[in-house]
Queue: 4 jobs
Job 1
Amino acid sequence: MNTVQAIIFDLSGTVIDFGSRGPVVAFVELCRRHGIKATEAQARGPMGSHKWDHIWAMLNEPEIHAQWIALKGQPPTAADVDAIYPEFTAVQIATLANHVEVLPGVKELVEELVRRKIRYATTTGFDSGMLGPVKASTAAGGFTPEIFMTPDLVGTGRPAPWMIYHAAKHMGLYPLHTFIKVGDTPIDIAEAKAAGAWAVSIVATGNEIGLSQEALAALSTEDREQRFQTAYAKFKSLGADYIIDSVADLPSVIDHINHRLSNGERP
């Protein structure tokens, strides 16, 4: 009970898809198909939430909301999201085919987790029907979680803790203070806090920076440092227990949490 037993990983921006580009492309494309101009920043705002909730949040973003009313003559409703959600699912699946590469360091991290006998699973904002391309790519890249937990399997998405609870039940592990939740969005932190797990936030490969590996490398040192400082400050203000650049940095975090657990500390 005093050592880390399990890691719950997010997907895009955490273990696949450098910069969490796939979901952004899909949301912007969905809006375009309905005559709405959406920016990457608008698409990234609700990132990490269930995709239905994400669409609803975007439709209620002031600029997009105004565009919707101008086009449709009335505010968006939940029925509107229900109507376009199957279309989004198809767009997301097609988009993910080009955004499922396993990130640098993931394979080596998995090998370290296996060596330490630490088990792992995932939670995500994707529905289970969207995960075909993801599962194929992660398996080929050496990332094989015990279960991919999705909102449609438990009835709701983040920040509710149900996906983590179901993953824990599936693995037969408890208490939750021996779990680490790793993700790249504010709602990942909220999910960890709701479940009673440690919250670890990812910066370099994730949604807050939002750049491909090549684009990130092309930044000036000053620009890169400023973006990282902003992301670190945001995650710290939201209560992240640890903030790291990528999952490659996770082993030292596990060591530190093990030390804290042995001293009776909890998330």
Note: The radius of gyration is 18 Å.
Job 2
Amino acid sequence: MKLSKVQIESYRQQGFLLLENVVGVDLLVELRAAIARFVEQSRQVAASNKVYDLDPSHSAALPRVRRLKDPHLRDEVFQRLASSDTIVDPVCQLLGGTVRFDHSKLNFKHPHSAAEIAWHQDWAFYPHTNDDILAVGVMIEDCRLESGPLRVIPGSHRGPVYDHHHNGTFTGAIAEGDLGNLPDSAIDLVAPAGSISIHHVRTLHASTNCSADTTRPLLLFSYAAVDAFPVFAAYDLDEYDARILRGQAVRQGRMEALPIRLHLPQKPGADSIYDNQAVRKNGG
């Protein structure tokens, strides 16, 4: 699909887009079947590992997966969607003509569980030489207000890069007092199953807990322009270039004058945004 000039300009100004009914019904059926298989398999897992981030209340009798890590590596249906023209064409327009796939995750919110995500910017987790980076959220089920949808603050990507540390430790969350009344302008991205959201890497976003009878699966794909190179990270170069979906490999990054804070130090053993943000919630 192609974006209109109006949609592209809206993304530039607001830092997000919401596009309804993008993913077809047949593919949604495949995605749901794959997700159900992984949730069922999680019954055999007692603790979080390289595949699953599990809620503390998870058990074989009542599986509660908070996150399926790297779903594009777990089942080909996720990889197929991540590299499809349906997703990559609009991403390519927003990133200036080149696209490198970065990572994926599948987040869940179980009813009445503590799965709230505090305000943050993705930029805090993986700064690059420029900020032509975005995330696409695929709504596997209808997403309503009571589902705990993604919330964004329009225009916040054009503002400051916030400190995501607490008492010297990276928490992946911004102190509530630092945002002033900005959350008052937040927009809840509610839409039917098959819709997608797109948000800029510096857009402030969060989500509340789920109070509905749903697990609110949200599939997230992250992409970057080919000339956006990670800061303070190392990759296998061949594997890194193999992720290019549009454009050619380059060896000189495009540098922009952007503020960067290292996402270090982190709490030992922290393996997800839930672990990181718990440091601030628990007063550590």
Note: The chain has a mean pLDDT of 93.
Job 3
Amino acid sequence: MTNRIAILGSTGSIGKTLIEIIKKDKKNFKIELLVANKNHQELLKQAKFFNVKNIIITNKKSYSELKKKKISDIKILNNFNSIDHILKKRLDYVMSSITGISGLEPTLKIIKHTKKIAIANKESIICGWHLIKKDIDKYKTLFIPVDSEHFSIFYALKGNNIKNIEKIYLTASGGPLNKISKKKFKNIKISQAIKHPNWKMGKKISIDSATLMNKVFEIIEAKKIFNLSYNKLDILVHPSSYIHAITKFNDGMIKIILHDTNMKIPIFNSLYENNDKNIKTDKLNLKKLNYLNLKKVNREKFPSINLIKKLQDKDTLLETIIVLANDELVNLFLLKKINFNDIVNTLLKLIEMKDVKKYRQKRPGNLKTIIALNDFIRKKINKIINKYD
């Protein structure tokens, strides 16, 4: 049976990996929709290869470039307003991997149109999980997390009850700056911050790995996805990235989930869950197993981890603010308007401001509320940054 799918963020690292998996099994898939932001050339190449009839390119300049080509057999759109018209029959699988908060709206729009959704967008889960959960329950859509850590927890929990969890440990490689002295952080260049030792990732997530903000996000995600309290979650530094999650149960049993440092594995399993499909992977790495080198995080070197102590078990807008602020600060670092240390230092300063602090007691609202908060936070950050100049 042919599986009908859509890929939101098909030209990013997650989307490209999924495309490569599907290429090897092309006859069993029909891609109904591809979505990208700027890379219109890659998007068009993908659409032609898979004979896709509908594509969305959100960047206006890229959209104009595509429209100039006057392609008659592909419907080219610039927004998500037509999803209901495009997807008249329910899909079998959707990958949602658009980066940033801009990934939330299309995720919410497409849930009702698919039997299964795999989400690889931290911002959507953190800022809009209450909205996502409501829709996946309403439309009986199966949700699978794609981040290697959360997929590992998902995998470990098969046949187990969440109530039986004593503690979950997420692992962090320590990122590209793990062996660099904290004294040198101020002068870290973009090229250093994005040079991850284990994973091939985009610039944004690589910098989040360098500050360890990605682990803060993953703790928040795990809390939301698996409905856990923060005291049941912790982080261990594990430079080789072989182990992805350790789950300790109340009965004394411990599950350690490990796999190669290759996102193809969780993506493949999200696509072929419960199917008799095989993926070629490396042999068991005894060298890594014999030297796991697990350690607690150095909080002085990576102060972003201290943000977790400020979070409450009840959902508040503080989690959303942390994501939105970090998104803007990383962008400013990439634009060379702030230095590396400013990313976390400015964020810590921002959440203590009087007109921001009040959001710690407010519950997350609808999509419009989140977008409005995003505009507010970006303006606040740019005011702070302007004082640095």
Note: The longest helix spans residues 367-388.
Job 4
Amino acid sequence: MLDFKAITNNLDEWDRGLKRKGAKVDIDKLVQLGGEYAKLLQTVETLRADKNAAAKAKDIEAGKKIGKDLEKQEKELDELAEKLEKLSEEVPNLPLADVPDGGEEDGKVLGQNGKPVEIKNPKDHITLGSALNILDIEGGAKVSGARFYFLKNQAVQLEFALVNFVLEVLGKKGFEFLLGPQLLNEKAMNAGGYLGKAKDEVYKTQDDLYLIGTSEQSMLAYHLDETIEVPKRYASFSTCFRREAGSYGKDVKGIIRTHQFDKVEMFSFVAPENSEKEHEFLVAIEEEILQALEIPYQKVMLAAGDLSMASAKTIDLESWIPSQKRYRETHSCSNCTDWQARRGNVRYKKDGKSEFVHTLNGTAIAIGRLLAVLWENHQQEDGSIRIPKALEPYLGFNEIK
């Protein structure tokens, strides 16, 4: 539930924030309904107390009269709550103050690491993978359609080497590991904000369950309606499913943007005063992983209009792709402040008082796009692919040829 008192007391701030994010929300209507709900809730609670008092006094007639009025008021409260919830679901998280204005093209480059490799006539990952018999896109299209693929032979081993490498990194940093459901119910998906404007990206089954697009969704839902100790840090491996309904024409070829891919995701529950520091911590881990894999990248803060519904601030790491001579996003890390926690009712105790936690999520490794940049950056003149030294302990080979 939104904090209607905070919204009412900071209408100008909310109006600016929603405009920065490009959200079309009738904030005045929301505040009005919030006020009506609070007033009616107080009436209902008073009637409930009066009914209990009449029962204790064994005043049957008074109890019946109050009960009839209470039933009417509770029905009105439920109807108002439904309207309020529907409108509230359209309200995104507000961008933090240091997030730049603008849209997709207005992200702020915060720095770069590693010099893009100089390769004469670089081959793209599709050409490399096909020639080395480690990637079959046509096979994936034959059995499932566009944006599906088969990994083969050493690429399969490389995927699990990447996963094991990343899990070892995260284990040393104190993350707990989860391997959870990849089908979630509506309440779980809605808590993260994935059934609002993003619902067209989600696969739904005939059993009214939803395939996850990231294990962020299941890790958040793991503590729905709970009061927990913070900080809690989880890492989860999962297969992810995305319809990519709004991305036609983008990264159509290859395995950078697909309907199904594997990923290891990081997720943190922290006290509000620690969420900015936690964001820096998660981004630093992402950078450590890319540096260990010897992949050049740049760090970008997304502009307000490019943020997801849940995010108040997002940092992307964009890896260098030699065949495209440009950086493309391979890692993303978002601070969602208390937005998801309010929807999922996840709290912690502070000085004996129950407060909402802050949640953060970050990509540790997204297999498809990471394999693409790894193959391209480590391709050799003879068409082989060099394995980064960080992965050698997890494999029985140091090159694919």
Note: The first strand starts at residue 108 and ends at 113.
